[in-house]
Structures are given as structure tokens and as C-alpha cells.
Design a protein that fits this description.
Layout lengths: L1 E7 L4 E5 L17 E9 L4 H19 L18
Antiparallel strand pairs: 1-2, 1-3
């Protein structure tokens, strides 16, 4: 599974499936200047566990950004491989 998530200026989440070269298969008809400078590309198996891990990661990131002063316990879940 190769997907790119970007955020539209009006707050909509744009989801695009990517081919093996990182090019959108069915690109969203949104110009680059209408997207916020936030882009997440996810490479993972296309299975239920990977999708659940992605949702956990996005939820955790949202909580951290929404409440940066609060210390919240980290949920135990699937280990995500980091590619750098």
C-alpha cells in the first residue's frame, strides 16, 4: 500500500493511492497551492492490521498537536517500521 495524505486549505483530507514510483494513480484535482505544506506518505501492507496501525498513528499525532501541554499515556499497539 502506497498512499499520500495531504490537507486541503479548507481542512479536507486528500487521500491518493500511489504507484511503486510514488506517482498518484488517480490524482486529486487539487492544485499544489491549495494544499497545506503537510504531506504524509505511507508504505505498508494493505491489510487490516496495517490500516489499524495507521489510524492509531494519526490519532496519536492529532492528540499530541491538539494538546501539546498535556502528558498522555502512549497506547500500546503495533510497531511501525520507519524508513529514513
Amino acid at each position: 500500500m502506497h498512499r499520500r495524505y495531504t490537507i486541503h486549505r479548507d481542512g479536507d483530507l486528500l487521500v491518493e493511492d500511489l504507484d511503486a514510483n510514488g506517482k498518484p494513480i488517480d490524482p486529486e484535482p487539487v492544485a499544489a497551492e491549495d494544499r497545506l505544506p503537510v504531506e504524509v506518505v505511507v508504505l505498508s501492507p494493505d491489510d487490516v492490521d496495517s490500516k489499524a496501525a495507521l489510524l492509531d498513528l494519526l490519532e496519536l499525532a492529532h492528540e499530541m498537536e491538539s494538546n501539546p501541554d498535556e502528558q498522555k499515556p502512549v497506547k500500546k499497539g503495533h510497531k511501525l517500521d520507519v524508513i529514513s
